[in-house]
């Protein structure tokens, strides 16, 4: 095999896969390229908590030998990726970015970890997160928080912060994330990458350190929608070890990607942006421009009458904090100060919630699922912003922000709907803006199809952070 890449030219998963299949690209040299980029760039980003260099080189050599011998496993064979450091890895430290698990080495892989390994991926290492995937950025954990490659003074979003930063900087071709209230979508928006929060139950969470069982989702992140489709194909499927895992037929996600949007009915959740969650002017303009692009591709677009964001907020906060406190209550009693201040300030108030609070929140959630289902009738997908605007500063982060305004991402954790987040433009100062494409339950292929058609019709994927070029 010959190395078909040059330093600074990082291929997508789809591009690398085609080159590897035709033996124009070596998994070994691709892995070497990315390890060099990690060594050069990650000291500025802190996206990795652990680089598994020796294991990566060994896996790349094995992949190359198998491919040369005609035993290619599929499109992920020989593709270097990273895992958010809440995905258990047998024999490899898994910390959740916390002093509580600083020396934790799992005895088995998470289901998704094992599936991606079986698909032939090359693990480059474990990626930064907000502590136990909530709150952040934190500056009092054993490792510094990840930074945004578009501007290292800014947040990469969270909690899948390392995944978003590493993909945008071209340090990995794909990564895993988790999403309990927006933790795939926020870093996807802030880092200008593609991130898929699948339907609840589509991807097993077994072996992934839990945050809130009712709302936790696991999904892929990459540079393009097509790359997310390739990753999701390997990740999805029933797992009896996850009680919430769904028994559904897994379609060919990549084959379902669209080139146009003829006949597609899109609902725009305009009243969220114009009312209780006023987005920044550049964000609103970007969404309006994206809708114009989708009209040009043949889509029919109307306003969608979703429930108010303020209806989702109380149920979301009570459920996520109650369930997180239930996971950590015993450890917090004995090792309280080993948790970071941000985690403590987020989770400790849940000790004051009552059983009635939690039950009423769960009842409200069911009502919101039914109301959302009714609002989606007549639409194939819905569209909204993924964030109020551009990335925010790392320092001076308002720890009470989540209580001051409703989340624009939480509704789709409560309802379990699939959401594909893509870049929809940049501010005048060159910072990323992101958009959510929401599908029906297990309509992941439709959400990705619409997002892919939009992505192909725009030039956003041609732009990388200056430090990554």
Condensed summary:
By secondary structure, the protein is an alpha/beta fold. The chain has helices spanning 13-21, 27-45, 53-68, 111-118, 161-168, 185-191, 225-235, 270-274, 281-296, 309-335, 341-347, 355-376, 401-404, 411-414, 444-456; strands at residues 48-51, 80-84, 122-127, 174-179, 194-197, 217-222, 265-268, 300-303, 381-385, 419-426, 432-439.
| Poorly predicted runs of 5 or more residues | 1-8
Largest β sheet strand count, sense and barrel closure: 11 strands, mixed
CA-based gyration radius: 21 Å
Percent of residues in β-strands: 5-15%
Q: H/E order of the elements?
A: HHEHEHEHEHEEHEHHEHHHEHHEEH
Distance between the termini: 25 Å
Helix content: 25-40%
Strand adjacency order, main sheet: 1-3-2-4-6-5-10-11-9-7-8
Number of strands: 11
Total number of helical segments?
A: 15
Within the CATH hierarchy, at the fold level, what is the topology?
Amidase signature (AS) enzymes
Mean pLDDT: 95
Q: Sum up the overall morphology in one term.
A: globular
Which architecture per CATH? Answer: Alpha-Beta Complex
Please give a handful of descriptors for the protein shown:
15 helices; alpha/beta; 469 residues; 13% strand; Amidase signature (AS) enzymes; eleven-stranded mixed β-sheet
């Amino acid at each position: 095999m010959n190395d078909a890449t040059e330093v600074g030219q990082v291929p997508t998963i789809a591009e690398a896969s085609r080159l590897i299949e035709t033996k124009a690209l070596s998994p070994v040299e691709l892995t070497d390229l990315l390890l060099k980029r990690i060594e050069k760039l990650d000291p500025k980003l802190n996206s990795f908590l652990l680089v598994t260099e020796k294991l990566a080189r060994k896996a790349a050599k094995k992949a190359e030998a198998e491919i040369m011998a005609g035993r290619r496993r599929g499109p992920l064979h020989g593709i270097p990726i990273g895992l958010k450091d809440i995905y258990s890895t047998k024999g490899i430290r898994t910390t959740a970015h916390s002093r509580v698990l600083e020396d934790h080495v799992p005895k088995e892989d998470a289901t998704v970890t094992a599936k991606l390994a079986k698909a032939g991926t090359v693990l480059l290492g474990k990626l930064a997160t907000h502590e136990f995937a909530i709150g952040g950025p934190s500056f009092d954990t054993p490792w510094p928080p990840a930074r945004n490659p578009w501007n290292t003074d800014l947040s990469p979003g969270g909690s899948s912060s390392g995944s978003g930063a590493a993909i945008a900087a071209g340090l990995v071709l794909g990564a895993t994330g988790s999403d309990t209230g927006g933790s795939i979508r926020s870093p996807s928006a802030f880092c200008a990458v593609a991130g898929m929060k699948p339907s609840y139950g589509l991807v097993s969470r077994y072996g992934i350190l839990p945050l809130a069982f009712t709302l936790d989702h696991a999904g892929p992140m990459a540079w393009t929608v097509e790359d997310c489709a390739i990753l999701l194909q390997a990740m999805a499927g029933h797992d009896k070890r996850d009680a919430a895992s769904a028994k559904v037929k897994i379609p060919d996600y990549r084959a379902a990607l669209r080139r146009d949007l003829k006949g597609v009915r899109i609902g725009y959740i305009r009243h969220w942006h114009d009312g209780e969650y006023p987005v920044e002017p550049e964000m609103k303009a970007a969404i309006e421009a994206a809708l114009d692009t989708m009209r040009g591709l043949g889509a029919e677009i109307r306003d969608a009458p979703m429930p108010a964001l303020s209806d989702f907020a109380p149920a979301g906060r009570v459920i996520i904090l109650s369930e997180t406190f239930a996971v950590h209550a015993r450890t917090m009693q004995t090792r309280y100060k080993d948790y970071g201040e941000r985690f403590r300030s987020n989770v400790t108030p849940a000790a004051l919630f009552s059983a009635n609070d939690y039950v009423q929140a769960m009842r409200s959630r069911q009502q919101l699922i039914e109301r959302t289902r009714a609002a989606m009738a007549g639409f194939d997908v819905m569209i909204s912003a993924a964030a109020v605007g551009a990335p925010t500063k790392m320092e001076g982060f308002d720890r009470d922000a989540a209580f001051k305004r409703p989340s624009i991402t939480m509704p789709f954790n409560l309802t379990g709907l699939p959401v594909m987040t893509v870049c929809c433009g940049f501010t005048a100062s060159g910072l990323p803006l992101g958009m959510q494409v929401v599908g029906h339950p297990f309509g992941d292929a439709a959400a990705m199809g619409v997002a892919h058609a939009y992505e192909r019709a725009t030039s956003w994927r041609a732009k990388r952070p200056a430090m990554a070029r």
